[in-house]
Write a structure and sequence with these properties.
83 residues, 5 strands, mainly beta
Length: 83
């Protein structure tokens, strides 16, 4: 899916993309969203109806999100510059 939305929250702009992958048991009910800010990337799983609404609760999605890679214990590469 190539959906893209821009949100402004607490002085930051976020690009949100729907990831194609979701847990096999949740394909019909959930989406995985990738939230990309200026200095970080986060991921959150949500119910489809939470996202496909005229006014999604973006603050709640950010609050529930985790740093991208955190669920797989992937950290930033030691030689990578700070985000």
């Amino acid at each position: 899916m190539l959906e893209r939305e821009f949100f402004y929250l607490k002085g930051r702009t976020w690009l949100v993309r729907v990831r194609p992958a979701v847990r096999r048991s949740e394909i019909e009910t959930h989406l995985t969203l990738e939230l990309m800010g200026d200095k970080e990337a986060r991921v959150v799983s949500c119910l489809r109806e939470e996202w496909y609404t005229p006014t999604p609760d973006f603050a709640a999605l950010v609050a529930r999100s985790v740093t991208a890679g955190a669920s797989h214990h992937i950290g930033q590469h030691p030689s990578a510059p700070p985000a």
